[in-house]
Each structure stands twice: as structure tokens, then as C-alpha cells.
Amino acid sequence: MARSTLSFKRLAVLKAVGLVAAFVLAHGCARAETLRPFKDELFAYGRVLESRDGGDWLTVDYDEMRDINGRDEVPERRVKRPYVALGVKRFQENETIDVGGRGLDVFRVGTPENAAFTVIFIHGRGGDRRLGANDDSFGGNFNRLKNLAVENGGVYYAPSARSFDTDGAADIAGLIDGVARRSPGRPVILSCASMGSFLCWGVSRNATAVKQLSGMMIMGGATDPDFTKSAAFARKLPMFFSHGSADKTYRADDQAALYTRLKKGGYPTRFVLFQTGTHGTPVRMTDWRDAINWILSR
């Protein structure tokens, strides 16, 4: 993949400076202004069937014929052209990052130094960094995330998880530390899909990593019944959940029960349920701009 050009680096720096000017200090942490729109008319949530908790819980209408067959040229393989902007490919590359003496393969788009914000996406079982780099699958949702990062002076990473255990969580904690050092004081958001959620829950127990994070996203993932014992819970790290109501891999009811438990305790959390959605629906349908803006506003 092509490396970033000098002109892009200058442009990204200017954008980042503009965003940084909008940062405010809150409890010693910098928070960014909301991300500017990018194809919101195509990616924003459709019909809301239910809204409660001041909008923190949303049940969103999902229809496979409309949201897959009507959106893709080749269902689940190639999205229709209006959903993607492929110029962003000029600003992306694969690289290997040192994390505690180990090499971690990552996909990156955007300038890593002094980024206005960082998003990290962790794939599930059977995947690798290519999943989070794919422009055409998942309805073009990753292409939108790439463009949101570049257009707003941020950076996006998709690593290849070595494993879904404590070693894998240690790799991701090392990546978080590395990106936090490259963009000191700027928000870092960790997002995990499916079995990748095991790594999010593992990182939630790492006090150093949690201190460097601004929020966490669990998309169609497993539930951690012991989350309330974690460093993330103690810090009240904002938690965003999205899930399909018909997910047969990880039950939506289990994740919803955790959300309800957290919400009753005044914890900053949000839940988007895709009615009739299945296991892969949240990766396709989660509105990245909406989720990131919610976390940045906490």
C-alpha cells in the first residue's frame, strides 16, 4: 500500500491543529469536538423503533433485504459505489509495530503523530487486519471509518490479533500505549467485534491501558459478567454496545442486561440494538460517527 505523501501530512497536521484548538480540558484530559459528517445520509441509523434512557438506548429497524441486498452490488462482498470514497487508500499502509519486544502487524490509515484522535478496531475469530481494512465488505462501513479518521485529523488502526487470551490483550495494551505516546493527551478509542471482545475485556483490567483510553466499543461481542471488578469500571470508562437481536453466537439479552446494570448505577453507557440483526450486523450497521462522537462528548 502507498505511504502517506508529504502534502497529506501537512494537510493532516493542519486539520489536527484545527481540532486541537477545539479541545477543552476536563479532569486533566483533552476532549475533541464532534467529527464532521461523512456520508451521514447513507450511514446514519434508520427508523428508530424505541428510544429510552435519554437516547442512550436505541432499538433500530434492520432489514436484510434492504440493508444487505439493497446496499451491496454483490451481497456481503462488494458494496455499491456511492457508499465508498476510495481516495483514502492513498493514506493507508501496513506496518509492524513493536509492543513489548514483540511485533504486531497492523493496518493504519492517517498520520500517527499528534493525531486528533485514535480508533483501534479488533476483529473476531478467523480474521486479521485485512478485515478492518476492507473497503467493500460490511456495507462500506470500514471505508467510512477510514474517511472519518483522515478528514478529521485522526488515525485508525486495525491490528491482527495474535490470540484472544491474556497474551493477545497484552499486545493490544502495548498498541494503546504506543499510540498514546505518539499523540499525547488525545482521545484513544478501542473497539472490538465478536470474539475480539475478549481482548477489550482483557484490556479493561489493565489499569495503565484504561488510563490511556477515552472509551470502548463492543460490537456483537461476548458479555463480561465480572466487568464491575475491572479498572475500566472503576474509572467509569464510557462503554458503547451494539448488537443484533437475533445474534445466535452471543445473546443480545446478556449484553443488554450488562448495559441495564451499568445504567442503573449511573455509568456512562450506550446500547444500540438492531432489531432482527444477526451476529455480523453491528459491524455493518454501527454508525461510527455517532459512536465516536458520543464517546468524545463524555
Q: What do you see in this structure?
A:
- With 298 residues, this protein is α/β, with parallel strands linked by helices.
- The two termini are 35 Å apart.
- The radius of gyration is 18 Å and the shape is globular.
- It has a ten-stranded mixed sheet with strand order 3-4-14-13-12-11-9-10-8-7, with helices on both faces.
- The protein is built from twelve helices and 14 strands.
- Helix content is 35%, strand content 24%.
Shape designation: globular
Number of strands: 14
Give the count of helical stretches.
12
Unreliable residue runs? 1-32
- For the residues shown, what is the average pLDDT? 91
Rounded to an integer in angstroms, the radius of gyration calculated over CA atoms is 18 Å
- Strands side by side in the biggest sheet: 3-4-14-13-12-11-9-10-8-7
Query: Approximately how much helix is present in the residues?
Result: 25-40%
Structural category is alpha/beta
One letter per element, helices H and strands E, the order comes to HEEHEEHEEEEEHHEHEHHEHEHEHH
- Largest sheet composition: 10 strands, mixed
Beta-strand content estimate: 15-25%
N-C termini distance: 35 Å
Task: List the main descriptive attributes of the protein structure presented here.
single chain, 298 residues, alpha/beta, ten-stranded mixed beta sheet, 14 strands
